[in-house]
Write a structure and sequence with these properties.
CATH topology of the largest domain: Rossmann fold
CATH class of the largest domain: Alpha Beta
Bound molecules: (~{Z})-2-methylbut-2-enedioic acid
Order of helices and strands: HHEHEHEHEHEHEHEHEHHEHEHEHEHH
Number of domains: 3
CATH superfamily of the largest domain: NadA-like
Length: 341
């Protein structure tokens, strides 16, 4: 039985379509333990959101760390921040609803100033983005003349505006290796900076910022997550250096996705990154066994179906990504440089 009270106004004649929507959701989400009645409770929202986005000409872009109801229920394009930023410049739609954290949506706006970019629920509490300002970058440049500034995507637009090139975990290593200089300022993720120094042999000047989700993974916690020796371990570069030294592979979620796509039936894999990504892998590659990481980013999880529906139906100022045009123009160089890698 599909319950339709207290949901976006769905007319009785749409009831059959709603049943189809429940089936569609259940076919995707049951492997994560979603029951049919759980799918019934979200179907009115996913149904309405998918209708609204078509009517209003939106594409929904979702980061892989979003929950499975967003990734498989309403998203048109799913990926890491690099893939999403690239796609946003390629799609013809002038309206984008971005399910992710603010600074990722800002990157989309920096590259596409003429497009309307909405975020359902702003998450203004990323420990990485909050750790540094544009003024801090200016000081770092004064203290280290001649050193190029590579800034991780998890930064606000004023920080990107003071940087030479932006990177994501997908291309950070390639970018560092491609720079002629041996001394490079890498901001703001200290773990990632130290890991990149180990991987590239370059002298990396770091900043004391960290991702609370990945930094919380200690060696002790890791021991509890690895079930047996056959399980291959793959850690995100935001993890502590001692974790990176211990695991079989290291990289970003783009690398992990490629690894999962090549894995064989029955392979056991532990990806040490946000749980939303693991859930995505479980649905996309059902023949592979993925261990749970239990690593949750609360800033990413602020976007939910209800907030998405409201933002699409009647966006408030808070949903709309707006940037100071001077800052945007300055930040464009760093973000656009990132797309070449
Ligand atoms: O680059 C991204 O999207 C982040 C922050 C993580 C990842 O590896 O996907």
């Amino acid at each position: 039985m599909v319950v339709i009270e207290d949901t976006p106004e769905i007319r009785k004649e749409e009831f059959g379509l709603l049943e189809e929507e429940v089936e569609r959701l259940f076919s995707k989400l049951h492997s994560l333990g979603w029951s049919r009645s759980a799918c019934e409770s979200i179907a009115p929202f996913t149904y309405k959101i998918n209708q609204l986005k078509k009517e209003k000409g939106f594409k929904i872009l979702a980061h892989s760390y979003q929950t499975a109801d967003i990734v498989f229920g309403i998203a048109d394009i799913v990926g890491d921040s690099l893939a999403l930023a690239k796609k946003a410049t390629e799609i013809p739609e002038k309206r984008i609803l971005f399910c992710g954290v603010d600074f990722m949506a800002e990157s989309v706006k920096i590259l596409n100033p003429d497009k309307l970019v909405l975020v359902p629920a702003r998450g203004r509490d990323c420990t990485l983005a909050d750790s540094i300002t544009g003024e801090d970058v200016k000081k770092l440049k004064e203290e280290n003349p001649g050193a190029p500034v590579v800034c991780y995507v998890n930064t606000n637009a004023d920080v990107k505006a003071e940087s030479d090139i932006c990177c994501t975990s997908a291309n950070a290593r390639r970018i560092i290796e491609s720079l002629e200089e041996d001394t490079i300022i890498f901001i703001p993720d200290e773990n990632m900076g130290n890991n990149l120094a180990d991987l590239t042999g370059k002298n990396i000047i770091t900043w004391p910022g960290f991702c609370r989700t990945h930094h919380a993974l200690t060696m002790k916690r890791l021991e509890g997550l690895i079930p047996d020796q056959e399980t291959k371990t793959f850690a995100h570069l935001e993890c502590r250096p001692e974790i990176i030294e211990t695991v079989d592979f290291a990289g970003g979620t783009g690398d992990m996705h490629r690894y999962a796509a090549k894995a064989s039936k029955g392979d056991k894999v532990l990806f040490l990154t946000e749980q939303g990504f693991i859930d995505r892998m479980k649905i996309e590659f059902p023949d592979v066994h993925f261990e749970d990481s239990k690593m949750i980013c609360i800033s990413m999880k602020r976007n939910d179906l209800f907030a998405t529906w409201k933002a699409l139906e009647k966006p408030t100022d808070d949903n709309i990504i707006e940037l100071d045009e001077e800052v945007r123009k300055k930040a464009f160089r760093a973000v656009n440089n990132m797309l070449k890698y």
